[in-house]
Design goal:
The complex is a heterodimer of chains A (113) and B (113).
Chain A lengths: L3 E4 L2 E4 L5 E7 L5 E7 L6 E8 L2 E4 L6 E7 L2 E6 L8 E8 L8 E2 L3 E5 L1
Parallel strand pairs in A: 2-11
Antiparallel strand pairs in A: 1-3, 3-8, 4-5, 4-9, 5-6, 7-8, 9-10, 9-11
Chain B lengths: L3 E4 L2 E5 L4 E7 L4 E9 L6 E7 L4 E4 L2 E6 L4 E6 L8 E9 L6 E3 L3 E6 L1
Parallel strand pairs in B: 2-11
Antiparallel strand pairs in B: 1-3, 3-8, 4-5, 4-9, 6-7, 7-8, 9-10, 9-11
Classes of the chains: A mainly beta (113), B mainly beta (113).
């Protein structure tokens, strides 16, 4: 998985609780992404980062925030988890943007009860 | 709205046989098209990336074709193996869209003995 780890790999939480997912890379790539994958939908971009402290929204960013204080770490926070945020979350990295290949992590399976 | 549609939704073939997966897109202006393989419970792995000027690209037993005029791509798998069982995802990037990709929902391929 191209030097990308995600933690936790599985999480069950209750509606209304905050949740933070972590993505860690050892490739020193500039770009990092958070996606969610749901049945019947293609992967959808939540947020991405193009450098330390530089982030931007994706198409499904409502209810999510991100932070990147170091090149290697990209955090995704659900401030108050809802059942609609039950999903599989993937982190991805790329050396540059544009036509560069994105390498994906192993995913985090989140269940919000 | 940018869209990527894949067909068939699922496919079962016998080991050793060939198969072709289809992808139609409406992403505009087009930048590049990617095929990813996603094993169950894992993150997607890149197979090929093609730009406007490339109409064929191979990666071992995988050959992708692109017709930018008709906005269609196909992924041909030769001499299938059990390990080819996976979801194959077509992904299209728009020029000027930065790092925002449009993902198809995938074709679920099962290779049987």
């Amino acid at each position: 998985d191209a030097g990308i780890t995600q933690s936790p790999r599985h999480k069950v939480t209750e509606t209304g609780t905050p949740v933070t997912l972590r993505c860690h890379q050892t490739e020193n790539h500039r770009y990092m992404y958070w996606y969610r994958q749901d049945p019947g939908h293609g992967l959808r971009l939540i947020h991405y980062s193009y450098g330390v402290k530089d982030t931007d929204k994706g198409e499904v960013s409502d209810g999510y925030s991100v932070s990147r204080s170091k090149t290697e770490d990209f955090l995704l926070t659900l401030e108050s988890a809802t059942s609609s945020q039950t999903s599989v979350y993937f982190c991805a990295i790329s050396e540059q943007g544009g036509r560069e290949t994105q390498y994906f992590g192993p995913g985090t399976r989140l269940l919000v009860l | 709205k940018n869209q990527v549609e894949q067909s068939p939704q699922s496919l079962i073939i016998l080991e050793g046989k060939n198969c072709t997966l289809q992808c139609n897109y409406t992403v505009s202006p087009f930048s590049n098209l990617r095929w990813y393989k996603q094993d169950t419970g894992r993150g997607p792995v890149s197979l090929t990336i093609m730009t406007f000027s490339e109409n064929t690209k191979s990666n071992g037993r995988y050959t992708a074709t692109l017709d930018a005029d008709t906005k269609q791509s196909s992924l041909h798998i030769t001499a299938s193996q059990l390990s080819d069982s996976a979801s194959y995802i077509c992904v299209v990037s728009a020029r000027g869209g930065g790092n925002k990709l449009t993902f198809g929902t995938g074709t679920q391929l099962k290779v049987e003995l």
